[in-house]
Amino acid sequence: MTGIVTSEAAVEQIRVSERLEFPYVRSLGPVVGxxxxxxxxxxxxxxxxxxxxxxxPPTEWDPVDGEPLSGELVEVGPTATVxxxxxxxxxxxxxxxxxPFAFAQLRPEGATTTIVHLVDVGSPERMxxxxxxxxxxxxxxxxxxxDIAYWVPA
Length: 154
Fold this sequence. Notes:
Blueprint: H1 30-40, E1 44-48, E2 54-55, E3 73-76, E4 80-88, E5 101-108, E6 115-119, E7 132-137, E8 148-153
Antiparallel strand pairs: 1-2, 1-3, 4-5, 4-7, 5-6, 7-8
């Protein structure tokens, strides 16, 4: 039987130099608008589905079946768990931090889904899947996800 056998020792790091952009503007409806308002108050909201999942950021529609949600919003966090991450050793001008950081999928406490945000820990050795993090809010907030400047170990 042939195949590929790997071990952690055999796995190489892959470094990619690419620019990732999402150049669009979106208008806010009642659900995302409530999420934006909560961000200005240093709170995170999620939308509860009929089967009890909590979606962050909240949506008006269930991503599984496309059915409209009831509109029930619940507060989540403020801490979150790192589900996965990647290290940005050389930030570019488009990044919100000028020093190395991690992009991470974070599952806020009480949420079923994850959000992607920055984690500032100083080095990849201090970053780990499963670690708990807390948001560091900007002093002046305007109702955008970057009202959270970054997350730090809880």
